[in-house]
Design a protein that fits this description.
The protein is built from three helices and two strands, in the order H-H-E-E-H. The chain is mostly helical and 85 residues long. The protein folds into two domains: 53 residues; 31 residues, no CATH class. Strands 1-2 form a two-stranded antiparallel sheet. Helix 1 packs antiparallel against helix 2. The chain is flat.
Length: 85
């Protein structure tokens, strides 16, 4: 298991996103509209989490916009295995 250190500034930013998710959850539970701002924040959260937690999408034929994120170290391992074949 890999240990990832999170900077204090990143923790504060993640706290903001958790509160945004809480608000989104409350809005949907109470059947009130979701704001477009929430949708935009979700995308930003996706990028921040993938950066902080070291997730990446595969590149090339296997990857692109629609590919699931994977652990960065697994992608590096696959890439090095491809070079050995």
């Amino acid at each position: 298991m890999k240990t990832i250190n999170i900077d204090p500034k990143d923790r504060i930013e993640l706290l903001r996103y958790v509160n945004m998710l809480r608000e989104l959850n409350c809005n949907t539970s109470e059947k009130i509209p979701i704001y477009y701002e929430h949708v935009c924040e979700l995308e930003t959260l996706m990028y921040r989490l993938s950066n902080i937690l070291e997730f990446q999408q595969p590149k090339g034929l296997e990857g692109g916009w629609y590919a699931d994120y994977q652990l960065k170290e697994d992608l590096l391992e696959e890439k090095s295995n491809d070079k050995t074949h």
